Amino acid sequence: MQVLSRLLNNCPGFGKAFHGLACLAVAVGGCSSFGPSEPALPPGAVPMAADSRYQDWFGRTEACSGLDGSFQTITWYVVPNAETFETPEGPKVGMWEKSGAVTRIIIAGRYVAHEMVVRHEMLHHLLDREGHPSEYFTARCRLTWDSWGQIAAQ
Ligand SMILES: [Zn+2]
Q1: How high is the pLDDT of residue 68?
Q2: Positions of the chain with pLDDT lower than 50, given as ranges
Q3: What's the count of helices (H) and strands (E) in the chain, helices before strands?
Q4: Cα 119 from Cα 142, distance rounded (Å)
Q5: Where are the beta strands (DSSP E) in 18-148?
Q6: Ligand 1 mean position to 153 CA, how many Å?
């Protein structure tokens, strides 16, 4: 219990990755400053219109995964000019976030035109989950840094 109360006190002050993850889990249960209906955006994130290529990339991600999804339900954000942005799990170049009917994809500014980074987050949307099952992220779609590099090497 002491650990739990410490985590609650830390929420949403993200420090170490473990605390961040635990805080997210707690948030679903009702962390007041970080409710499930309004996930926190990374600092500096602003809405952006989907790039003209994104619809095509979405179709290709549906094709490789064999999954269907709705492109229109994604709300896109960018952190302008950023190489990475801060998240509870540490710095990232892209992030998928779902809460109820709201789906957000946030991309670091330097990577908004990077097909792998954008499609990686689209695949989270199609799978409707976090984590990276290798069947989809590696074998089917090759949307990880390592497996994407394999395509270029072929
Ligand atoms: Zn991911």
Answers
A1: 97
A2: 1-36, 154
A3: 6, 4
A4: 10
A5: 46-47, 74-79, 94-99, 102-108
A6: 22
Euclidean distance between CA atoms 41 and 152, whole angstroms: 33
Consecutive H or E run containing 69: none
For residue 95, the tally of other CB atoms under 10 A from its CB is 23
Identity of the residue numbered 128: D
What does the pLDDT read at residue 101? Answer: 83
Strand-pair category, 102-108 with 74-79: parallel
CA of residue 1 to ligand 1 center, whole Å: 31
Distance in Å, CA 130 to ligand 1 centroid? 7
pTM for this model (two decimals): 0.74
Written as six digits, the tokens of 74 are 């994604």
The shares of helix, strand and coil residues in the chain, as percent rounded to the nearest 5, are 45, 15, 40
